[in-house]
Amino acid sequence: MINRLSKSIALFFSQKNIISNSELDSYIYGFQLLLSIILNLSAISLIMIYSGKIKETILYIASVFILRHHTGGYHAKTPERCFIMTIGVYILILFIISMVTVKLSIIISGLLLPALIVIIKFAPIVHKNNPVQESDLYRHRQYSVIISILIACSVIIFVLVKQYTLSLVLSLGIFQVSISLLVEKIKGGDA
Fold first, then answer.
1. CA distance 167 to 147
2. Any idea where the domains of the chain sit in the sequence?
3. What is the pLDDT of residue 51?
């Protein structure tokens, strides 16, 4: 659906001579990304409003999306699969944070260290569906490490100020990113 809509939009702009035919594939890809982001964020926003987990969702989205941009990792084959996986993981995280006790929250925050190790060791991993120029790899690596360390510090600060749910959200988010890296590494992505 997103692919067809992206092609239709790009063809419309091409017919109006707004974009050239030689750039059509790039625009189709760009519209796919834009529509996917809009769809994912819209669905997450609706779930956020319904669940009332506004702080948690904003923290989750900001940390995971920014970190994933720099770490790379697994990418779904189609925008529809990406949507299902993104929303599924988000709902799972909401479920976990609503069910976990304070003590268990602190224990789960222990996922932070292995996740950091994975990110520092493997990031960035380039996926063919999300290509990165060779010249940008070093910058993405630096940002991956810096952002991960900032998230880890935030987890520690949230634990110290007894904001256990927020520390849990960040811990689960960084753990999710590390799993994405491991999955792509196992599948044979570049390191």
1. 15
2. 1-52, 53-187
3. 94
Is 90 exceeded by the pLDDT of residue 78? no
The whole-angstrom separation of Cα 167 and Cα 169 is 5
Identity of residue 96: I
Nearest by Cα to 163 from 89, 91, 59: 59
Helix axes 79-99, 24-51, angle to 10 degrees: 20
Across residues 85-103, what is the average pLDDT? 89
Task: Give the whole-angstrom CA distance, residue 155 versus residue 145.
Answer: 15
Among positive and negative, which fits the CA dihedral 89, 87, 68, 53? negative
Local confidence band at 132 (pLDDT 50, 70, 90 cut-offs): low
In contact, 67 and 144? CB cutoff 8 Å = yes
Please indicate, yes or no, whether the overall pTM of this predicted structure exceeds 0.70: yes
Written as six digits, the tokens of 74 are 């697994």
Report residue 110 as tokens. Answer: 């222990």
Alpha-carbon gap, residue 1 to 21, rounded angstroms: 22
Cis, bond preceding 124 (omega within 30 deg of 0): yes
State how far the Cα of 2 lies from the Cα of 83, in Å rounded to an integer.
Answer: 11
Mean pLDDT over 47-68 rounds to 94
